[in-house]
Amino acid sequence: MTIDRDGSSAAAAPSRTLPTLRKSFHRIHLIIAVVSLLAGLISLLAMALEKPHQGGQLPFYLWPLLLLLSVALLVSGLIASFLTRRLNAELERWHHHLTRENDTLAHQALHDTLTGLPNRAVFTYQLEKRWLDLRERQRIAVLFIDGNRFKEVNDRFGHAAGDRVLRVVAQRLRARLRKDDLVARLGGDEFAILLTSIDREEQAAQVARDITAEMRQPVKLGDGTLLPQTLSIGVALGKHHQSTEVLLAQADSAMYQIKQRGGGWFLSPSFWELTPGVPPEGEAAPC
């Protein structure tokens, strides 16, 4: 999933540049070593040719110069190797820093900063991804969740208290889900859950019951105030709908229906339309 073009470029640039620089440094070291070895061999050969019994014809200062050149090249190679190791270490730190920065930006782009939950973009992407699999489409359920009287919390206790409530709600929702399920914050006090491997309506209904039961425990504010907070939950199943848009609209509609009754959970009316004679099952929370 592409976040943005800048984020992708930031991740790719160090990965391409760092190996290229390392290869260049290795080539330079190899060339210095080969030249140094050749110069050393030539200087030794010159020393042998200058022996008196061989009647050397080369100038007497040639082999000392070649030997000096060999030593100079060897020393420069050692210095270059030391500097290269230092530079590689700096490049590694730079690469890790950019990687962490990119991961941070990617996380911020895909997650809600207050609760740490995935955001609407992630929820939509995961839903559409699973919808493409016809078999998996039949086993997903969506829960739309909205807080009840949340504005009153902000007005009476302040936005810090409202933020506290949202964080607690997020934690409780996440704690009630399985590993492969997804909970996201859509914005404000709206959340959404994507359930997988749902074979029966009762499984999705049980998740809604568990969440409702979990929220019966008041939220404790920083000053010790115990604040009751209820939710309205609308449930819709993928196998009853022809598109993700309709599925989401049905979950949203079910949520608003139960919200008008004071909160609780409600299964999408589309289920009851497909099952004549069965009344809408739901549970309303006390006002």
Q: Based on helices, strands and strand pairing, what is the structural class? A: alpha+beta
H/E series, N to C?
A: HHHHEHHEEHEEEHEHE
* Spatial strand arrangement across the major sheet: 2-3-1-6-7-8
Give the amount of beta strand, in percent.
5-15%
Q: Averaging pLDDT over every residue, what do you get?
A: 79
- Head-to-tail CA distance between termini: 42 Å
How much helix, percentage-wise, in residues? Answer: 55-70%
Principal-axis shape: elongated
Tally of helical runs:
9
- Uncertain ranges: 1-14, 272-281
Q: What is the strand tally?
A: 8
Round the Cα radius of gyration to an integer and report it: 35 Å
Q: Mind describing the biggest β-sheet?
A: 6 strands, mixed
Short synopsis of the structure:
By secondary structure, the protein is α+β, with helices and mostly antiparallel strands. The chain has helices at 5-49, 62-110, 120-131, 134-137, 150-157, 159-175, 201-214, 244-259, 269-274; strands at residues 141-147, 182-187, 190-195, 219-220, 226-227, 231-237, 264-267, 282-284. The chain is elongated.
Folded structure, characterized:
The radius of gyration is 35 Å and the shape is elongated. It has 9 helices and 8 strands. The strands form 2 sheets. The protein has a 6-stranded mixed β-sheet, sandwiched between helices. A two-stranded antiparallel ribbon has the order 4-5. It is an alpha+beta fold and 287 residues long. Helix content is 60%, strand content 13%.
